[in-house]
Specification:
Blueprint lengths: L21 H8 L7 H9 L5 H33 L16 H19 L2 H5 L1 H19 L5 H29 L5 H13 L1 H12 L9 H9 L2 H11 L4 H6 L3 H19 L28 H23 L2 H7 L4 H13 L3 H9 L5 H19 L5 H28 L6 H53 L8 H5 L1
Helix pairs in contact: 2-13, 3-4, 3-6, 3-7, 3-8, 3-9, 3-10, 3-11, 4-7, 4-20, 6-7, 6-11, 7-20, 8-17, 8-19, 9-10, 9-16, 14-19, 14-20, 15-16, 16-19, 17-19, 18-19, 18-20
């Protein structure tokens, strides 16, 4: 039986919203009614916020920690790569592959390939399987990358590692959105980002300590990179602690496995809850769908959302990575020494988890699109002020504010884009729209380097400001609301 053709087989008492009769609870807890995609989703959405639910998010976020470490160390090893003579800060030509911009571009070229080409694997093979495989992929590629000594070989292995990171980013967003109840999605993504963004100050700290030095005669930037590859060691512990997504299993027609995974989760949650779980609130079943078709993203109602998120992602990455990937280099351009720039960058990086931690309390109270727009506005305003400052206190304060707004933007849009598409195509749809940020960030490396060379730091933040205006307009004018709605309601 295909999981997408069984959604209309629910009994009469499972097609009305808000059913709370004892018989409804008894039939689902006793498993006397065959599970369906609709009933699996309703049972997940009624789960209380117990320790087990938050622990699942935290464990998945542990895998994301290594991703973010790997993703963000680009900024902090940059001065070391230049100091070692492998790269130059800027190049005479726009597409100079011996410049630091090429290393940044290789990172995002890999991310683009991973998100666009391989993200569909999570829809075909399962969230848990791809989560594990991609974590191993980029860990091994990163180890090899740190052993290279030429710009060409570094760019190649950085691209290969980026493919694994790109797949992992999409898979984690999809995984979390499907495991947590609808009223907790905002807070779940806030916790996810609080854990993953904690990797950024760690990368900055290790870079501050190691990049200016040569421990055991080996360039410090190599040690910083190798530390991030430790994700390969913890991956097997992570995979034992998380179940496959019951929503995905049901969508594949694997209802027995979905039932076992969900029943185990319900039993743990109910034990911690201390009383019977609330009754599921059933909504009208989704239309029958015989197979997952990628072409759906270009048909109503998803076409408008796809275009909106592609435009959004193309420009948000310029603001997000335009600062995050260039912090030490921008500080050096303002006259700060390498050692001081890494110290300032470490102080700024400490603020990365602040935004997500603040969002845990409010993420499900404010509409997702509103948080995205306000965060983008903050990046534009504080970035413009950053470009005009010279004192250490002002630079670090504004850097912290930009970083906090960037983290809030990330929390908002990662949750948002994973809510907009149905389970059967969620990973590949998110991969498609998210891939625009990867290709944009790839070219933004060259754009930032070009702006920095010809217009200085003010030119860099002028570019970022224009990008944030487009971000606000795309989401504000065309984005639907998603807070408090179950995934089927948002999809339909």
């Amino acid at each position: 039986m295909n999981g997408t053709t069984d959604v209309n087989t629910t009994s009469p008492d499972t097609t009305t919203r808000g059913s709370s009769s004892p018989s409804a609870i008894e039939t689902h807890t006793a498993h006397n009614v065959a599970p369906t995609t609709a009933s699996i989703g309703a049972r997940l959405d009624r789960l209380p916020a117990t320790r087990t639910v938050w622990l699942l998010v935290a464990v998945i976020a542990t895998g994301g920690w290594f991703e973010f470490y790997d993703l963000f160390f680009t900024a902090y090893v940059g001065p070391g790569l230049v100091k070692s003579g492998i790269y130059s800060t800027t190049t005479a030509s726009f597409f100079g592959f011996s410049g630091l911009g090429a290393f940044v571009a290789a990172s995002f070229a890999g991310l683009f390939i991973g998100t666009l080409v391989f993200s569909s694997l999570a829809d075909r093979m399962g969230r848990k399987t791809v989560f594990t495989f991609s974590l191993l992929w980029y860990s091994i590629a990163t180890i090899i990358m740190a052993c290279q000594s030429s710009a060409g070989s570094l760019n190649l292995w950085r691209l290969i590692a980026g493919i694994g990171i790109g797949v992992e980013l999409v898979t984690i967003d999809t995984y979390v959105s499907e495991l947590v109840p609808k009223r907790l999605r905002g807070r779940a993504f806030s916790l996810l980002h609080a854990v993953t963004f904690a990797a950024v100050p760690c990368a900055a700290f290790f870079a501050w300590c190691l990049v200016p030095n040569k421990p055991f005669g080996v360039d410090g930037w190599r040690w910083v990179v190798w530390i991030g590859a430790l994700g390969a060691i913890v991956v097997w512990f992570i995979r034992r602690s998380v179940p496959e997504s019951p929503r995905w299993l049901a969508q594949q027609g694997r209802f027995d496995e979905a039932e076992r995974a969900l029943s185990n989760l319900e039993a743990r949650v109910e034990k911690e809850y201390g009383r019977p779980l609330p009754a599921p609130e059933f909504t009208a079943a989704a239309p029958a769908q015989t197979e997952a078709r990628f072409s759906e993203v270009w048909a109503p109602p998803y076409r408008r959302r796809t275009i909106m998120m592609m435009v959004f992602n193309a420009f948000q990455s310029i603001g997000f990575y335009g600062f995050a990937s260039w912090v030490p280099t921008l500080l050096i351009a303002k006259g700060v020494t390498i050692t001081q720039s890494l110290l300032y960058s470490f102080v700024i990086a400490i603020s990365n988890p602040i935004g997500p931690i603040l969002a845990i309390r409010v993420a499900d109270k404010f509409e997702r699109k509103t948080m995205i727009m306000l965060s983008a506005l903050g990046i534009g305003v504080f970035g413009s002020l950053f470009a005009t400052q010279t004192s250490a206190a002002a630079l670090m304060t504004l850097g912290v504010l930009i970083t906090t707004c960037s983290a809030l933007l990330s929390v908002g849009y990662h949750a948002y884009q994973s809510e907009l598409f149905p389970t059967r195509i969620r990973a590949r749809a998110v991969g498609l729209v998210y891939s625009m940020s990867r290709i944009s960030a790839m070219f933004s490396g060259f754009m930032i380097a070009f702006s920095l060379r010809h217009f200085g730091v003010p030119g860099v933040f002028g570019l970022i400001g224009v990008a944030m205006v487009i971000v606000i307009g795309s989401i504000g004018l065309f984005g639907p609301r998603t807070n408090g709605l179950n995934l089927d309601e948002v999809s339909n």
